[in-house]
Design brief:
The protein is of the alpha/beta class. The chain has 11 helices and 13 strands. It folds into 2 domains: 57 residues; 260 residues, Alpha-Beta Barrel (TIM Barrel), CATH 3.20.20.70. The longest helix has 17 residues.
Length: 342
């Protein structure tokens, strides 16, 4: 309540809360009076909607419990480490995930995986099902792409993460993949989130193009609610007004999500930047902000890549990334599996 609020104001606020089905707990301090409200999610939402804040004598209202329960940092003394095919992602380590945006051929995927491994990657990425903006663009190899990824995993010894675009594909993707990726465009595809939650595989949940932190965590809650807490949050840039970059990497998201949630948080500088020249600077920023890992696009011949060649690392830029990954996480006390090739 505001310092000058009257008893009549206080009684009106309490009556309003009770009429909405909530319980009101009044604590009178020397300087101000605080009204605690307890109730179900529906009750709290209807109170917000009805404008508790608009009542006479109310100074401010704030939520002190998160609407996401399972992924919240509350009741977790430490952030969680999850394992993908034995590879840790969490607060003590730093994990590089790298590979082609899309699986095009077995040779292309193998070449990218070898480059990724040499740069210090301990997990492979690659899209078999691609969520394309245009229906005329390459849509991915589907099941054939999964088979290629599985072969390359065995040859290069890197477990892999791959996107699942449709809830109906979850069953086939889990037969091959070590981790499921839910892409930006599907962050609020709730039936897909539930199917991924029931899959028994770790899930990487990318942030929606315009998602708030709370919407992102509520999406993670859908996965968690199905009994799957092996979730990694991936910040990959959000829509901004600037046309020269694909998306705007939100570095604040790394620190904030790690505070709000116990889940690991990684950064994808490739899909944020959309341009090769920005990938390493943004990767460094992500590492400095405390990311538990990064995921980057790698291609042996970016100029001929079928998807996202403009942002794929190879040659000198990949070497720069390898140096950043081999040196910077250690400054923040992280153990990095990264190593530069002899
Ligand atoms: C991807 O990682 O391949 C991808 C499509 O990313 P995003 O969902 O972030 O656009
Ligand atoms: Mn891509």
């Amino acid at each position: 309540m505001a310092p000058g609020a009257s008893d009549a104001d206080l009684h009106a606020v309490v009556a309003h809360i009770e009429a909405s089905g909530g319980q009101a707990f009044v604590s009178r301090g020397v300087m101000r009076t605080i009204v605690g409200v307890v109730g179900s999610e529906e009750v709290l939402e209807s109170l917000d909607a009805e404008g508790l804040r608009g009542l006479s004598g109310v100074a401010e209202t704030m939520r002190i419990t998160a609407p996401y329960k399972l992924v919240s940092a509350q009741n977790h003394a430490r952030r969680t480490t999850i394992r993908v095919g034995g590879v840790p992602i969490g607060p003590d380590t730093f994990t590089l995930i790298a590979g082609p945006c899309a699986v095009e051929t077995a040779e292309q995927t193998l070449a990218a995986a070898q480059l990724a491994k040499r740069a210090g990657a301990t997990l492979l990425r690659g899209g078999a099902y691609k969520p394309r903006t245009s229906p005329y663009a390459f849509q991915g190899l589907g099941l054939d792409g999964l088979r290629i990824l599985a072969e390359v995993r065995d040859e290069v010894q890197l477990p892999f993460v791959t996107e699942v675009v449709d809830a109906g594909d979850v069953d086939s993707v889990v037969q091959y993949a070590d981790m499921l990726q839910i892409g930006t465009r599907n962050m609020q595809n709730f039936s897909l989130l539930q199917a991924a939650g029931a899959s028994g595989k770790p899930v990487m949940l990318k942030r929606g193009l315009t998602a708030t932190y709370e919407e992102w965590l509520m999406a993670a809650e859908y996965i968690a609610q199905r009994g799957n807490l092996d979730i990694v949050l991936c910040e990959r840039g959000i829509r901004s007004f600037e046309p020269s970059i694909r998306n705007m990497l939100d570095v604040s998201a790394v620190a904030i999500m790690q505070r709000q949630s116990h889940l690991p948080v990684i950064v994808d500088p490739s899909h944020a930047a959309g341009r090769r020249d920005l990938v390493v600077p943004l990767a460094r920023a992500g590492i400095a902000a405390g990311a538990d890992g990064i995921m980057v696009d790698v291609h042996a011949h970016p100029e001929s890549a079928l998807v996202d060649g403009a942002q794929a690392l190879s040659g000198a830029t990949l070497e720069e990334l390898a140096v950043a990954v081999a040196t910077l996480p250690a400054l923040l006390g992280r153990t990095s599996a990264a190593h530069l090739a002899g």
